[in-house]
Amino acid sequence: MTKFITRFAPSPTGGLHLGHAYAALCVHDAARAASGRFLLRIEDIDASRCKREYEAAIHEDLAWLGLEWEKPVRRQSEHLADYQSALDRLIEAGLVYRCFRTRKEVMAEIASAPHLAAEGPEGPVFTGKPLAPSREAKLLEEGKPYAWRLSMAACADYLGSRFAALDWCEESLDPPHVCKRVAARPEVFGDVVIARKDAGTSYHLAAVHDDALQGITHVIRGADLRAAAGLHRLLQTLLGYPEPVYRHHPLLTGPDGKRYAKRDRSVTLAHLRQSGLEPADICRLIAEHLG
Ligand code: GLU
C-alpha cells in the first residue's frame, strides 16, 4: 500500500462555509480513496483574528458532515517555538533580513519605484535588502518591531542552478491523478514576509514546517494557493524537508461568480444546518455549484 497522508488546514477566523465543506470533503475523500490518513490542522497563528469559538465550530461542522480525523489535532499557536527554530536556520544561512517598514511605507516605496511594481500572488512585489548594521542596531535598540523577509536574491545564490530548476508535482484531482511538473518560480513573490511582526512566523513557514513534521505526502487545497506551492518548494528545499505532491481544487463561487468569503453568512454550514439542511443536501449544493 502506498503511503498517503493528507490534511485539511482551516484557519479559525470565521464560520466554515460551503467552500470549506467542499475543500474538507475533497481532502477527506482523497484519503479514503487511497486508504490513507486524514489529519485536521488548525492554522491559528494570527492571534488577532483566530478565535476558540470558531475552532470549536470547525470541529462541530466537520463532525456533522460525517468526517473523522486523527487526534490529537495540531494547533499551530501551540508550536510557535518550532517555527522560530525553522526561522533561525534561515537566519543562520543568511537567507532572510529584518524589515522594519510599516505596510504603508512598503506601499509608498513600491509606488515610487516602478521596477518594484510587479503584482505577485499576494499583492505588489517588494524586493529590498538588509539595513546597514548601525541603522539596524539603532532600530533594535529602540524596540522597533520588524518582520523577516526571505531574500530571493540570497536564495538564488545559495541554491545556484537548483533555484531556477525548482518545480512541483501537480496531480490532477480526479483519478488517475496524472502528475504534471510545474515550474515553481518562487521569485514571483518577491522578498515575501516569512515571519510577521505580530506572529513571529507566517502561513508559509508554519504550513511547510508542519507538512514536513506530519509526514504529509499529499497537499490538497484550493486553487487560490497554487502559486504558493512554488514558494513552499523553495522553503522545503532550503530547510531540507521532503517534497509532497500537490493537488489544487477549484474554488466554489456564489451566483455572482465571486468566491465565498467568511462574511457570507447565508452559506455558512451553521446557518445551512439551522435551516434544516442535512449533510446530503450540502453535497448536492456543492455538486450544483461545481456545475
Ligand atoms: N490555512 C489555510 C487556509 O485556510 C490552508 C492552507 C493550506 O491548506 O495549505 O486557506
List the uncertain runs: none
In terms of structural class, how would the helical and strand content be classed? alpha/beta
Number of strands: 12
**Total number of helices:** 11
The dominant shape is globular
Question: What sequence of helices (H) and strands (E) makes up the elements?
Answer: EHEHEHEHEEHEHHEEEHEHEHH
Which small molecules are bound?
A: glutamic acid
> What's the alpha carbon Rg, rounded to whole Å?
20 Å
Largest sheet properties: 3 strands, parallel
Based on the structure, what is the oligomeric state of the protein chains? Answer: single chain
Strand content: 15-25%
Strand order of the largest sheet: 1-2-3
Q: What is the terminal separation in angstroms?
A: 34 Å
Question: Which percent bin holds the helix content?
Answer: 40-55%
| Overall mean pLDDT | 94
Quick take:
This protein has helices spanning 18-33, 52-64, 80-92, 103-112, 133-141, 152-159, 161-165, 203-213, 226-239, 269-274, 279-290, and strands at residues 5-8, 37-42, 74-75, 96-99, 119-120, 123-124, 147-150, 167-171, 179-183, 193-195, 218-222, 245-249.
